[in-house]
Amino acid sequence: MRLSCVIPAYNEAPRIAAVLRSVIGHPAIDEVIVVDDGSADGTAEIVAGIDGVRLIRMPRNGGKSRAVAAGIEAALGDLLLLLDSDLMGLSGTDLNALIAPVRAGQADVAISLRGNAPGLWRAIGLDYISGERVVPRALLGSPEALRSLPRFGLEVYMNRRILAAEARIAVVRWPGVASPWKGAKRGRLAGVMADAKMLADMFRTITPAQAVWQIMAMRRLRT
């Protein structure tokens, strides 16, 4: 099965080149697609100057759900590797570890557990809103359905479909990989507001009670 890597990006000029260095040329990845979600900091220009990546430019910032939908629509692979564009410390070894369980048929879906994930997620062995996943395209549904989601409703929507299919989940620990806190990228107040908006979008997609149920049910499906 061909594997397409889809990376949504919004104002990640300081970080995206490092992510792409780990992804481009990786022997398990057949194509790399970056969807620039209306960035204003030169993210798209940096990506355009790197060989081996296909760049899709969104005309305006529409949120992660829409950006990923555009990438999936353009992708050729039956398997999708979804990555956030701000990861620090990502290596080819980490990508191997995430891809391998699905390629080997040991799991249907693989989800990362980063080294700086919240302590609760590390304690229970699951980051249920991780942005780094390997998933079959068929499991995600149509791009139109993804576009209809709130800006940050993507991961919990994917969880809903994973659970409906009773897909086997491999949780892959990435102790050396981190995602910077929004406050570190945008400033403390802006970071708090961004986190609040993300939570609001999540809970427009599912209720808090459904989020708890997702966590419990996904833990039971771990391989």
TrEMBL record:
<dbReference type="Pfam" id="PF00535">
    <property type="entry name" value="Glycos_transf_2"/>
</dbReference>
<dbReference type="InterPro" id="IPR050256">
    <property type="entry name" value="Glycosyltransferase_2"/>
</dbReference>
<dbReference type="InterPro" id="IPR001173">
    <property type="entry name" value="Glyco_trans_2-like"/>
</dbReference>
<dbReference type="InterPro" id="IPR029044">
    <property type="entry name" value="Nucleotide-diphossugar_trans"/>
</dbReference>
<protein>
    <submittedName>
        <fullName>Glycosyltransferase</fullName>
    </submittedName>
</protein>
<dbReference type="GO" id="GO:0016740">
    <property type="term" value="F:transferase activity"/>
</dbReference>
<feature type="domain" description="Glycosyltransferase 2-like">
    <location>
        <begin position="4"/>
        <end position="119"/>
    </location>
</feature>
<keyword id="KW-0808">Transferase</keyword>
